Predict the 3D structure of the following.
Amino acid sequence: MNTESYAQAIAQDYGFEPHSVSVKPIGNGHINTTLLLKHSKGAVVVQKLNTQVFPEPDKLVANARKIEQHLKDKRNSGDYALEIIEHIPSVDNTYSVDINGDTWRALVFIGESRSEEVVQSAEQAKTAASAFGQFAAALQDFDADSLYPVIKNFHNLAMRMDMLEQAVAEDKVGRVSEVQEQLAFCRQQMHLVEELALLEGSIPLRPCHNDTKINNMLFSTRDNSAKAVIDLDTCMPGLWLFDFGDMVRTFCSPEAEDSTNLDKVVVREDIFAALVEGYIEPLKEHITAQEKASFWLGAQVMPFMIGVRFLTDYLDGDNYFGIKHPRHNLDRAKNQFALYRSVVAQQDSLKALICNA
Ligand code: ADP
Ligand code: GN1
Ligand code: MG
């Protein structure tokens, strides 16, 4: 089926006037297919959920709707100021529809907004980090155990390393020989697995976003303020250090995640400082001292772990992340390892910024 036929089928399922419908891709997500659908009365976002990544899409939608409801209650009581990602019911009153074996959902289009791929200024970093902090704070009284674990062991580094070794052993597409340098590098970082294990039990499990990359929040095009935290697909119980680390990963480099300009892939300390400040402020009533200290480990783990995941997908034949060219996942992996190296190299100043916050 082509995009136009999907659009017609969606129009029917959601009761939009079929002749008025047009679609175009929006955003740069790696997982789902996201389209802006315009119809006679306005616009909605429609998404084909990637069932390779999310084998139980109905559970994902049920999770997202629980969070949506919780945030709406918070907003109604004046405890959450951002806009909320909102699912639209179909004509049959379901929140996802089956089109030719694929699962689609419709979301309210959050207008006058834009997402960024690269943070442009410290002010922007603070705004975005504060939005993710407000989101985390608003979820503190949410029962995260009521969420279905849509991807088990999502941020389990030990398991990610096992998956890398498995992909190496299988060498499905004959790419192992060209990544020997990256593999050797990965195998030297096992201390991170041990450091994470040592933390177990000393910091609380929290309702987490688990994908706090910069393009998963929307800025207002009117005044550049934070508009909404989006992409709630991986909200599950987790550790704040991972959400913090994912922001370090996606806010701090002046280069995009897939840039091959590796000399420029370095942590911008002013951005890091703004992110620390922006994220911790909304959490100050909740965060423990040990949790704050653990952010340093998060800053190292996330660039490294996502690098490992990109490398694994490259060896596996690119079945997980969307790619635009055959070496895309390898480029992304090299980029993330360069960023991880920069985090480690700047350890003294970055750690001090966390400690002094
Ligand atoms: P993926 O899971 O593939 O990352 P996302 O849910 O993050 O998909 O959506 C991809 C992009 O689409 C976002 O980065 C954002 O630019 C845009 N987007 C998604 N939902 C909305 C929405 N409700 N309103 C406006 N833009 C949206
Ligand atoms: C994916 O869906 P998106 O593009 O926001 C991935 C994240 C990775 C990220 C790397 C469900 O996020 O875990 O960190 O790519 N999402 C999933 O950019 O695996
Ligand atoms: Mg996304």
DSSP finds eleven helices and ten strands in the chain. Residues 29-31, 53, 211, 213, 216, 231, 233-234, 257, 306 surround GN1 (ligand 2) (CB under 6 Å). The longest strand covers residues 33-39.
